[in-house]
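Late entry, evening session. Most of the bench is empty. Finally got around to the prediction I had been postponing all week. Sequence below, unchanged from the version circulated by S.P.
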Amino acid sequence: MEYFEILKKDSNSKARLGVIHTAHGDVLTPYFNPIGTKGTVKSITSEELKFWGADMILANTYHLWQRPGDALIYKAGGLHKFMNWKNAIFTDSGGYQVFSLAKMRQVMEAGVLFRFDMDGKSAILSPEKSIQIQSNLGSDVALILDDFPGFPFEYERTKQAIEQTTRWAERAKKEFERLTETGSSVNPGQKLWGIVQGASFSDLRERSAKEIRALDFPGYAIGGVAVGEPTAEMLKAVDMTIPYLEEDKPRHLLGVGTPYDIVQAVLRGCDSFDCVIPTREARHARLYISARDQQGREAYKTIDIRKAEFTEDFTPVDNECDCYGCLSHTRAYIRHLFAAVEPLSIRLATMHNIKFYLNLMKKIRNALENEYFTEFAEGFKEIKE
């Protein structure tokens, strides 16, 4: 059985319907990974995620290394057992923290010197160390350690980053192969994916893609996006990268994004995604709801449930949603919970936004299966009032 199967291709775009066969079950693509940074999707249980149809979640190597430590998780039998999650797990390498924790780290050839925010201690996250941590976690998809700049992009800094990422990728692959040979990984079925960098510079994207592709990873992530750049820049980076990656391997777009971003990236050939947006927005009372444009085409809106207009609104947050909050409670009640600073407010909002994203991916897959995805994508956008 092939690791990644393309089940159907869209005749009018680069979109495709597929399945990734992991050691912990199949992941139907296109797919969105709910973010479980520290071994949990905030306020949501593993059983709830599974019930909603989540095939895979993303956890963070850096944060789990910092606390509780990958050695403890290894003793527990890996992250799946530690958090009681039986489906697939995707781990990033800690590379995002190279960008997000710029004031607390130093990039060098050996790796990244981090100063932990928890206790002030320092430690180097090398390409090899990142692989060792992910091996102890036992994720199904592991990523190489990468380097990338934020927006606005500078050519020379980006050039340095892709060169560093390629050298780190070579070291990461050697360490992954060594651990595989020794049989020390919690998950013998773990796969290591490469990451392509290059910001929005076409020659650097091409170079990075070719260099990473030459290392023959079973899957690829497109990195260096969702770092403050406009949507058009992000999509340009995807367009610059996709042509240089093998069609028969899965492509993950790191850190993306809004519902609109995801649909546009699927059009361009991306297969999977991850982003904090649905959970972060939920904590700030911003909820995604289904909508229709003036032509009756499917779209979406974002509402702030704290607004006074919902005080006496006794309808569900979204009539098309089947999450617990929409089936059991009203906008007025959830607004009241936020006003009263009740923990249940964030939980219900998080449930809803994650379910909205998972339902969106089902709609995308259904549109691909039934050959109307291009029409769906043309009309799908955020309606702002």
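Two things to note before I forget:
The two ends are 49 Å apart (CA to CA).
Residues 155-182 form the longest helix (28 residues).
Will write this up properly tomorrow.
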